[in-house]
Amino acid sequence: MQQLSGFDATFVSIENPRTPNHVALYFIYDPTTARGGSVSCDDVVANLARRVHLVALLRLKLARVPLDLDVPYWVEDPDFDFDYHVRHLVLPEPGTWSQFTTLLGRLHARPLDMSRPLWECYVIEGLNDVEDLSKGAFVLLFKIHHAAIDGQAGVELMNVLHDLSPDAPPPPPAPPWDPPRGPSSAKLLGRGALNLIRSPVRVAAAVGRVVPGFGRALAAVRSGSLQRPPRGAPPTRFNAPVSARRVTDACRVSLTDLKRIKGIVPGATVNDAVLAVFAGALSQYLESKGELPSEPLIAIMPISVRTEDERAAIGNRVATTTVSLATDVEDPVERLRAIHASTSNAKSYVEAVDARALSELSNLMPGALVGIAYRAVGRLAQTGAFDHVRPRATATISNTPGPTVPLYFAGARLVTYAGMGPIYDGGGLIMGPTSYCDDVNFTFTSCPEIVPDREWFVECVRQSFYTLLAAAAPPTGSAAPRRAGTHRARK
């Protein structure tokens, strides 16, 4: 039995049918590398069943303290039913990328069953009319509650589920599993009372670790060697209340080309280049609607504080900061330069504060109280009470580097993968680029009331990428860059 951190418990507390709080990863496979050149749905399900015991969170469910007097616990589910969590879907003919992303949005909008282990997996077949995929390509879509997983934990899940070769032997059989029944309400209340007694001491210890960091950061700000990260963003359509529906889309670009883009500005990182691509896309998208603010847009940027021995740990190990997207800078190269300056400053500020200590302090938040406050804010937001309040940021951009070598599932080669995130009132856009081998998927999640034209949003991403790539000097003797975002119907 393991208790959730206060930070993870917040994701549970703010769960509701309109803003479900799960993340999703979808993996697209080429079955021609498997034995016989194809993979049946039964093969996929059997391979997944053999690996469930390797991922602890897949057999854990929540045990909530009566009246939510303390944060919940993870406990093993003695009634775990693998078949309940795995579903099979087939796209209607012809099986286009648009049909697929429409389905993704619908599936992502559905809340998880909070009384069971907090995940679902969909085997999706029929993606037969996408020009950069072989016919017979299939998809695994995982939905997992955000209380159980962050970006780096998602990569670890990805590594456990896959093999390094198409003919790898299956994992060893699962050991016998007969978990006890969950703790009684009386036991949970007793633990809650004990935690209440300990809480002031734990909070004081965490504050004691954070205060010196804030002192260092403040001194650096006063000396002029650091600036505070941006505080507040100009309001945009992305900061409106969200509906219960979801939209998503993605386009794929070359990591090699993205590294050429970062090379435009000395010292810039791949993450800076990612932010610059999204900055150009957001600028063009809002400008096309006559809604681009004169002030720069601001992004929330999560920072992983997960240590090596926490690679497979359940829950979130992150701190967050804000960075400028420099959308008030018209020239794309100068915008990249400004973004690099902003991210460098933000990282130095977070290091001065001590991101790990800050994350520990956030883990002591009373999740249930935060949830009550969030729901109250959500109801007020629906009435327009905060129309003139500056939001913290325009959007969240969470860049997750993935494996650099090919992976296989049931013999089928993983072609690409991407993710979807949760959105909330005032935070109606999350962008989660993921990398794998030499590909980067630029993806986003929103609702159709905020982004009614997802194809145009993706086209803005493509155009922003090519604008930056055109500014990068091509390497000597190189071939023309691969076309970005070829997820489209066959011609």
How many discrete domains? 2
Assigned CATH architecture of the largest domain: 2-Layer Sandwich
How many extended strands? 16
Distance between the termini: 54 Å
The total count of helices amounts to 12
Characterize the quaternary organization of these chains: single chain
**Secondary-structure element string:** EHEHEEHEHEEHHEHHEEHHHEEEEEEH
| Low-pLDDT ranges | 476-486
Outline type: globular
Q: What is the CA-atom radius of gyration, in angstroms?
A: 23 Å
CATH class of the largest domain: Alpha Beta
* Relevant CATH superfamily of the largest domain: Nonribosomal peptide synthetase, condensation domain
Structural class: alpha+beta
Beta-strand content estimate: 15-25%
Global mean pLDDT: 85
CATH topology of the largest domain: Chloramphenicol Acetyltransferase
Task: Indicate the percent of residues in helices.
Answer: 25-40%
Q: Major sheet, described briefly? A: 7 strands, mixed
Quick summary of this structure?
With 491 residues, the chain is an alpha+beta fold.
Helix/strand layout:
Blueprint: E1 2-3, H1 6-13, E2 22-30, H2 41-49, E3 60-63, E4 73-76, H3 82-85, E5 86-90, H4 97-109, E6 119-125, E7 138-145, H5 151-161, H6 185-223, E8 247-254, H7 255-262, H8 270-288, E9 298-304, E10 318-324, H9 332-353, H10 355-362, H11 367-382, E11 395-397, E12 408-409, E13 412-420, E14 430-431, E15 434-436, E16 439-446, H12 454-471
Helix pairs in contact: 1-11, 6-9, 6-10, 7-8, 7-12, 8-9, 8-12
